[in-house]
């Protein structure tokens, strides 16, 4: 007979872990089972480039201590894939044919790499650089001098390039669009990253796609670009983009037009089934509509609210926005919301300092809807909070690009409100700690 759990969680990353913690904050006794496909306990996926570059050790990769699952009372099934969910019967089936019954289910299935149909690719042992195992493979294959070809100049591709270069590899990045990080940055910040990478010895080819690949064995090969140019490589990284993993949700009959559809409480279209993380189409406060933001902090926040609602708290998800904080060869870059306005209905204010730092804000009416800072990012966090709060910045508009911009520039009433909220949060955290939650 199949065992029954109060909570079943499919996935083992930021959304899943934060959901566990939220559930336990409300329900200390309910049984929880969690399924993770990889052989590791939860680790911080954005750190794999730093692991390859030698900037952190393996023990620094983990998101929570080794005793996390035990301390949470979670039955952790690592290396286990869930292959089917039957929402009406409230069951799931694993790749080992084990059947489990659940009362509430969270799908935190994350994303999968998008692999374009390039002729010859199927013959090559390539990486996608989205997992710890990918990091291990890059470490092994760059132990000797290597030529690394990276297809795609998004966040994953550029961090892979930085990591491979730190290993001493000769690195070339090929990007179909005209600049690096085209989705996350504007043209000016993109140029700054491009210059840092070029100074570090990375060769970047933009406006070109890979038309064909030829295998030469052991992961090595030759790429033919769209203009006929050829490049030999010892290691190929495909980093063109990612897509939400919705196969399990679709098989269960959930609404998945772009990603898994949820309401304001992270509930899906089927009773008892919740979803959170990179596969979910949830509210973006800047866009004012649901959107997929496959970002670690967004997944963590969605997981928290999904867990609270699964445990019966009935707390609405506040929404989030597209936020990125990343560094390339010592150049920190922070962005949030809309950085590339789609039309003339936005006001853009930007400034480049004598020291080379770059700051930009985007307003729609009197509301701050986007920001981008490259170089000195100190105190930029207040801009992200103003975006998240949909704050009217009319009275502080002229100060937004000042490096010293801070709470002191906000109206007295807003400062007092924030102090009150902060104090309430501290008191709540202390009360929870005293109760052992």
Question: What would you note in describing this structure?
Answer:
It is a single chain. The chain is an alpha/beta fold and 437 residues long. The chain is 25% helix and 29% strand. The chain contains 10 helices and 24 strands. Strands 1, 2, 3, 4, 5, 6 and 17 form a 7-stranded mixed sheet that branches. A hairpin with a 4-residue loop joins strand 18 and strand 19. Helix 1 packs parallel to helix 8. It starts with a strand and ends with a helix.
Total number of strands: 24
| Rg, alpha carbons | 23 Å
The DSSP helix count reads 10
- The proportion of residues forming helix, as a percent range, comes to 25-40%
User: Main sheet, how many strands, which sense, barrel?
Assistant: 7 strands, mixed
N-to-C span: 33 Å
Percentage of residues in strands: 25-35%
Structural class: alpha/beta
The general outline is globular
* Uncertain residue segments: none
Round the mean pLDDT to the nearest integer and report it. Answer: 92
């Amino acid at each position: 007979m199949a065992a029954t759990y109060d909570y079943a969680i499919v996935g083992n990353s930021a959304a899943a872990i934060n959901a566990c913690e939220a559930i336990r904050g409300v329900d200390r006794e309910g049984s929880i089972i969690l399924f993770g496909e990889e052989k590791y306990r939860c680790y911080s996926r954005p750190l794999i480039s730093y692991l390859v570059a030698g900037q952190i050790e393996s023990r620094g990769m983990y998101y929570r201590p080794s005793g996390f699952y035990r301390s949470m009372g979670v039955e952790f099934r690592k290396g286990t894939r869930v292959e089917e969910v039957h929402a009406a019967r409230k069951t799931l089936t694993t790749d080992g044919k084990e059947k489990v019954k659940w009362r509430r289910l969270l799908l935190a299935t994350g994303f999968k790499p998008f692999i374009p149909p390039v002729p010859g690719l199927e013959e090559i042992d390539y990486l996608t650089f989205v997992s710890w195992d990918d990091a291990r493979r890059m470490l092994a294959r760059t132990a000797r001098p290597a030529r690394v070809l990276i297809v795609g100049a998004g966040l994953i591709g550029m961090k892979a390039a930085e990591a491979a270069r730190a290993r001493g590899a000769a690195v070339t990045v090929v990007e179909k669009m005209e600049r690096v990080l085209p989705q996350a940055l504007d043209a000016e910040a993109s140029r700054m990253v491009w210059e840092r990478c070029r100074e570090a010895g990375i060769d970047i080819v933009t406006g070109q796609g890979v038309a064909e690949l030829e295998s030469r064995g052991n992961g090595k090969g030759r790429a033919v670009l769209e203009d006929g140019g050829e490049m030999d490589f010892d290691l190929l990284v495909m980093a063109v983009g990612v897509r939400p993993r919705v196969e399990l949700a679709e098989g269960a009959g959930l609404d998945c037009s772009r990603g898994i559809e949820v309401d304001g409480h992270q509930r899906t279209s089927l009773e008892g089934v919740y979803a959170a993380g990179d596969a979910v189409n949830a509210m973006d406060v800047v866009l004012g509509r649901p959107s997929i933001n496959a970002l670690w902090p967004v997944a963590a926040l969605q997981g928290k609210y999904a867990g609270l609602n699964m445990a019966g708290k009935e707390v609405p998800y506040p929404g989030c926005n597209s936020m990125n904080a990343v560094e390339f060869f010592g150049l920190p870059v922070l962005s949030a919301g809309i950085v590339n306005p789609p039309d003339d209905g936005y006001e853009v204010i930007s400034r480049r300092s004598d020291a080379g730092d770059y700051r930009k804000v985007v307003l729609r009416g009197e509301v701050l809807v986007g920001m981008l800072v490259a170089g000195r990012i100190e105190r930029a966090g207040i801009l992200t909070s103003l975006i998240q709060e949909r704050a009217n910045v009319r009275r502080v508009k002229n100060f937004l690009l000042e490096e010293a911009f801070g709470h002191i520039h906000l109206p007295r009433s807003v400062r007092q409100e924030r102090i009150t909220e902060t104090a309430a949060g501290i008191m709540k955290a202390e009360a929870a700690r005293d109760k052992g939650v």
